[in-house]
Write a structure and sequence with these properties.
Elements (H helix, E strand, L loop, with lengths): L3 E11 L6 E15 L2 E8 L8 E8 L2 E7 L4 E6 L2 E9 L2 E17 L2 E12 L2 E14 L10
Length: 150
């Protein structure tokens, strides 16, 4: 895997009352490296209407993914298979207590492509909000086989 990568983040939320899923998808450029058996991806994200970027760091290995965000929003989210973690999510509009109850983490890795799938339940202030799914697709920037559908 090269250092410069294309990163696709797809998120789905399934509401118990509604069978339709809300999908969010972003394509970003980031930096990738692997150290001590853990994968890292660093990238910046801009939010419409705000001048300040949010710096993001993904760290993952078997059965665990961490997302640290700093800037416009600040949070350290830990996804550990079969474990619930609580964290404070700080936004420009206030702080929210979120719970992440991770059901499954699956990592598929090849020489120039990594796909991470995470299934989890999301709580806000101890109230169940939704069942969610995240797909993180990381590919070497010069890899011609990169696809948004992966």
């Amino acid at each position: 895997m090269t250092q410069e990568v294309l990163l696709t983040l797809k998120g789905l939320q399934f509401d118990q009352r509604d069978e339709d899923a809300d999908q969010i998808e972003m394509v970003l450029v980031g930096d990738y490296y692997k150290r001590n058996g853990k994968h890292y991806v660093i990238y910046e994200e801009m939010v419409e209407g705000f001048a300040q970027a949010t710096k993001n760091r993904l760290k993952f290995c078997e059965h665990m993914l961490e997302l640290s965000r700093s800037g416009l929003v600040n949070v350290h989210m830990v996804f550990q298979e079969n474990k619930k973690n609580l964290t404070n999510y700080n936004t420009p509009f206030g702080q929210i207590l979120i719970g992440i109850d991770t059901k499954k983490i699956q990592i598929e890795e090849s020489e120039d492509h990594i796909v991470v799938n995470v299934d989890y339940a999301l709580d806000i202030n101890y109230e169940f909000l939704a069942d969610c799914h995240i797909t993180v697709n990381i590919a070497s920037k010069e890899n011609n086989s990169f696809s948004l559908d992966s």
